[in-house]
Design goal:
The structure is a homodimer. Chain A is an alpha+beta fold. The first copy, chain A, has 10 helices and 4 strands, in the order βαβαββαααααααα. In chain A, helix 1 links the parallel strand 1 and strand 2. In chain A, helix 1 packs parallel to helix 3 and helix 5 packs across helix 8. The relative contact order of chain A is 0.12.
Chain lengths: 221, 221
């Protein structure tokens, strides 16, 4: 039976891009279904009834949800470039940092640019502390995964691309090369990996997406 | 070299108990270091400088943090009863539900009992929806892991023990056997597994802990 791999996602979403990166690292061919997140499709609701969120990977009709869970599934299912290392302690570290990106960094980084007044000041302070932690983690390494990109690098993709663009769109300066030199070295290495570089989302499209989101956030205040 | 396994935790914490359950499933001997979470030890701050939280597993001096990450490490490091299944799709499902417990259930379940007024009503409503999802997931299964307990069951330990006690202490009724029959069957099966039963935290101690936390929450309002 021919293998069927389908990805329900949105090209502008860092979570979708994480999964695409993992599929491309494994050389897996897949069909991409662009989801309109403002008008969710019956397909998405059927395959991710719990969260109703992208991305969803369908492998021979079986759905897998949550980007980090999907990446581990891909790593365990297909040969090719490994995404997690073999050693259990190194695997634990990769999972720890990937979880850190989602649980700790995402919200404060977004808020540091999108909120206002006191809330923004607090988010900026928090974001700076988090970026310092990441900068420090990278002090002796090229990637979070060591010499090659791994789970934590893929999970940090929103820092290397999306977060820089949000800062540009909003004019808010949170991260700079001077403050986080190792993190900026990592950004440079990461976005220049061929697999990442060839699949970066066009900046002008993301600029449009963020302008829309920021306007929506302001309108609901 | 003799193996050194040390767990920094608090006996009353469901997260610590998760790790203890995993260690016991593998038959790993370990030293337990009770942490005073209101006055964190230099040891905790040294080994979990990022989150400064329990539990931390020290294996031959190397720290592993975050309970779900620790459980996967334990599963990959020691033989004995498997915690995650072998099949990648089943592993993905276990990880999905374990993550669901932490990301979605913990806060609303706690708030449904500990908050007041409108906030409480909203949390209760949300908690009921989440419990319904869990009840439905268990419809054809004995455990979240299938026939035997696995990662998601261990992650759901706060529902089987802590959440029932919180409801008793506060007098708030969120979950009942009538509303969630499959979930209550699961609770019964889970707490009666020998490894869980022999290590349940004494109810009277948890009652005292929750009374303290609820008073503290009220005092800061």
């Amino acid at each position: 039976m021919a293998e069927e791999v389908m990805l329900i996602g949105a090209k502008g979403s860092p979570f979708t891009r994480r999964v695409e990166t993992a599929l491309k690292m494994k050389g897996v061919q897949y069909e991409f279904m662009e989801e309109d997140v403002s008008n969710k499709s019956p397909l998405l609701l059927k395959y991710n009834p719990v969260h109703k969120k992208i991305p969803v990977l369908l492998h021979n009709g079986k759905p897998i949800c949550e980007s980090l869970v999907i990446i581990e599934y891909i790593d365990e299912t297909w040969k090719g470039t490994p995404i997690l290392p073999e050693d259990p302690y190194e695997r634990a570290k990769a999972r720890f940092w990937a979880k850190f990106m989602d649980d700790k960094c995402l919200q404060p980084l977004w808020k540091s640019c999108s909120s206002q007044g006191e809330e923004q000041e607090k988010a900026k302070e928090e974001a700076c502390e988090l970026l310092k932690i990441l900068d420090n983690e990278l002090k002796d390494k090229k990637f979070f995964g060591g010499d090659t990109i791994g789970l934590a690098d893929i999970a940090a993709n929103f820092i290397s691309h999306w977060f820089l663009i949000i800062q540009e769109v909003t004019g808010v300066e949170v991260s700079t090369k001077d403050k986080y030199p190792k993190l900026y070295e990592w950004i440079d290495e990461f976005v220049n990996c061929s697999i990442i570089k060839e699949n970066l989302h066009p900046k002008e499209e993301l600029v449009a997406v963020f302008r829309g989101r920021l306007q929506a956030a302001t309108a609901t205040k």
